[in-house]
Design brief:
Layout: H1 2-5, E1 15-19, H2 24-35, E2 39-44, H3 47-61, E3 65-69, H4 75-89, E4 94-97, H5 112-139, E5 143-147, H6 160-179, E6 186-191, H7 224-236, E7 241-243, H8 246-257, H9 259-271
Parallel strand pairs: 1-2, 1-4, 2-3, 4-5, 5-6, 6-7
Helix pairs in contact: 2-7, 4-5, 5-6, 8-9
The structure holds nicotinamide-adenine-dinucleotide (NAD).
Nicotinamide-adenine-dinucleotide is lined by residues 19-20, 22-26, 43-45, 70-73, 98-101, 121, 125, 147, 149, 192, 194-195, 197-199, 202.
Length: 277
């Protein structure tokens, strides 16, 4: 009730950590949380992009923010970055595990290195950040938000490593939610549909290099700002699962209850063409 009436105040002065916050959905979330009055800690790879975003937040939204260069796949870098957040702000209220990469290649043509890198960023990245931030989140009865995908509950062709990493996030965070039940910490998994970001442009191919032919998104493509707004609204309500767009709900129900029908009708449509390397 309190959260509903005072929705505009819920994140005011709260400390929000966003991984992969310099681009796409992460950047839109940073801006949305800044507009809600949050203090931001942004973890991403490129120091120049971090500096420019922190300056933009200060100049245009009068927001307090720090940018921390950090590869979330590296546990030590993550624990150093989280220490810096705690030193600067004294605690963490919301952790948004958003950093992610994808690939597009058949299983047979995908090097082990690609599986390892995709799991290291998408799965272990979220694990490292959550491990490091959990004591503070428990102390503050905070929130953990995890960017999964349509791939978190359905197979999508030519993305076996990506699908595996997103399925693994559901296993990890659904378990964690049960284990910390009663602690006051909310765990929300978010499954956006196709969104207009750089994810596909930076997709790896089977040998580990970045694609020279970015795949097109399929069907209706959401704007990152709309996805961020839906996540923000879901966070206000402390939801457990957010599946965005009607197509995804249909895909989810079909994949779960009518898997053969899903494989025949929807899977080829949402997977796109077989990659030609
Ligand atoms: P994006 O490529 O625009 O942004 C990803 C961000 O993560 C970038 O800023 C990148 O620098 C950062 N990043 C990558 N590897 C990192 C690492 N090792 N350490 C720290 N930061 C790292 O992509 P996006 O679409 O905004 O993706 C955000 C999340 O949303 C991802 O988890 C993705 O799987 C998920 N998602 C995206 C879509 C989509 O269609 N774009 C759909 C569903 C889910």
């Amino acid at each position: 009730m309190y959260r509903k009436v005072f929705a505009s105040k819920v994140f005011q002065r709260k400390v929000v950590v966003v991984t992969g916050g310099c681009s796409g959905i992460g950047r839109a979330l940073v801006l949305r949380m800044a507009r809600a009055g949050a203090r931001l800690a942004i973890l991403d790879l490129d120091p120049a992009a971090l500096d420019s975003l922190v300056r933009h937040l200060a100049d245009h939204l009068n927001a307090e923010a720090i940018g921390l260069p950090c590869d979330v796949a590296e546990a030590e870098q993550v624990s150093r970055a989280i220490e810096q957040v705690l030193e600067r702000f004294g605690g963490i209220d919301v952790l948004i595990n958003n950093a992610g990469i994808t690939h597009r290649s058949t299983f047979a043509e995908t090097d082990l290195r690609v599986f390892q890198r995709v799991m290291a960023v998408n799965f272990f990245g979220a694990l490292h950040c959550t491990k490091a931030a959990l004591p503070s989140l428990l102390e503050r009865q905070g929130q953990i938000i995890v960017l999964s995908s349509l791939s978190g509950f359905t197979p999508l062709l030519y993305r076996s490593a990506y699908n595996a990493s997103k399925h693994a996030l559901h296993g990890l965070f659904d378990t964690l939610r049960h284990e910390i039940k009663g602690s006051g910490v909310n765990v929300m998994l978010v499954c956006p549909g196709f969104t207009a970001t750089d994810l596909r442009k930076n997709a790896l191919v089977g040998d580990g290099s970045v694609t020279r032919h970015p795949p097109l998104a399929i069907g209706k493509v959401a704007a990152p700002q709309d996805v961020a707004e839906a996540i923000y609204q879901g966070a206000l309500r402390r939801r457990r699962l957010l599946v965005l767009s009607n197509v995804d709900w249909r895909a989810r129900l079909l994949a779960r209850y009518f898997p053969r029908l899903f494989e025949r009708i929807l899977l080829p449509r949402i997977s796109g063409l077989r990659p030609s390397r």
